[in-house]
Amino acid sequence: MSYIKPSFRHPELPVNTLGYKRKDYEGSLSTLCAGCGHDSISGALIQACFELNIEPHRLAKLSGIGCSSKTPTYFLGNSHGFNSVHGRMPSVATGANLANRDLIYLGVSGDGDTASIGMGQFVHLIRRNLNITYIVMNNGCYGLTKGQDSATADKGSKSKAGSTNLFQNIDLPGLAMELGAGFVARSFSGDKVQLIPLIKAALAHPGFALIDVISPCVTFNNNVGSTKSYDYVRQHVDATATVDFVPHAAEIKTTYEAGSNKLVSMHDGSLIKLNKLQADWDPTNRDSAVHALHEANSKGEILTGLIYINEESQDLHQLLNTSKKPLNTLSEKQLCPGPEALMDINQGLR
After folding, report:
1. Sign of the torsion formed by the C-alpha atoms of 301, 302, 304 and 308
2. CA–CA separation, 225 vs 162, rounded Å?
3. What is the pTM of this model?
4. pLDDT digit string (tens) for 103-147?
5. Domain span holding position 303
6. Is 327 a member of any domain?
7. In this structure, what CATH number is given to the domain that contains residue 159?
């Protein structure tokens, strides 16, 4: 079996502003199980990057280990990529970002890769506010090792084998909120209408942006009793709002009824348009967002959409006041100015 897609495409397929076709953002054929939610997320990433007119060579995709971390093979085949050690993708991403701030960074992880072995790395990535879009493909189980519960499996949920999870789950959006993340969202792999604008907004956000995507495992966690199955998610989804992303280059026209909609301005002039469904919820107010999350959790609902955004977010380079030029473009003399410069620094600290 070949995992390389045929190169032929219809010659009249639409192109974006840069002249790229959708196929220019694709990768190899997926080897995941048929119906896996992760493939839908890959498709959403392809569409989002196509619509954002991102040059593929300007994006770096990084992952760890797991079914989710295989997916970068299936999208953006012409982009930079690094498949790292289990749970250690944040360290690689941090090093790459500090060396070359001009690339767009996309981290792909899973609930095991993030909420278990990679938890220590995940929390420090948020704390440092690295400029990266971090997507968690969350299915509540370890698909590569036959479906054991992961740390995000809800308490009381039942596995395919019939065992009940006794432990409290780790809620990644809630944790990200507590750690000060500037962009927190949740979506469902089966809802591309919501997911694609969220990805576009996250990629435009300066700083750490989390999208926790419920992505059912059709082989090991799509059974009755699972709270990460297709049926359960569809029956318990409670959206904050319908979302649209308006790029800075597009003409912006708005006609809204007072109080029913909200426009969130991005640093580059882009807008996130929210048609609000949740009463008394403000995505720019952290307390309001935390309350909305807790309210949904107490009802057994899955709150999706843009949950929180900090419009004044500063990424790691701004916090450290690093060079405006990528470090990998600086000369040895600029990086190592010599003993005299070191003496001046030491003298200033006396």
Report:
1. positive
2. 9
3. 0.91
4. 999 999 999 999 999 999 999 999 999 999 999 999 999 988 888
5. 22-320
6. no
7. 3.40.50.970
